[in-house]
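Problem 12. The chain below contains 102 residues. Write out its predicted structure in token notation.
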Amino acid sequence: MITQYADALYAAGGVEKVGWIAWIVIGGLAGWIASMFMGTDRQQGLLLNIVVGIVGGLLGGFILKLLGVNVAGGGYFFTFLTAVAGACILLFIVKLVTGRRG
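Solution.
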């Protein structure tokens, strides 16, 4: 259902693909929100928030692609939600590996 809707929007020209500058902006915001949600905001600066958001976006996109969701046609809002979710997953994994509590 979701993939059909995203494909139809992309085919109709209603959704744009996200460029690399948008990835930096979306990544920074997503990393910042995820770090606040996961309790790591005090440990991270702007650059690390951007990196966590971009890597989280890639991780979230990979997971959604495995589930069969068309991540390329989602647009900015879907990309942002994917990046926030992926960044939260990434920060959770980092906390598990390093043993930090927050």
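Discussion. Helices lie at 2-11, 20-38, 46-66, 75-98. Students who got a different answer should revisit the alignment rule from Section 12.3.
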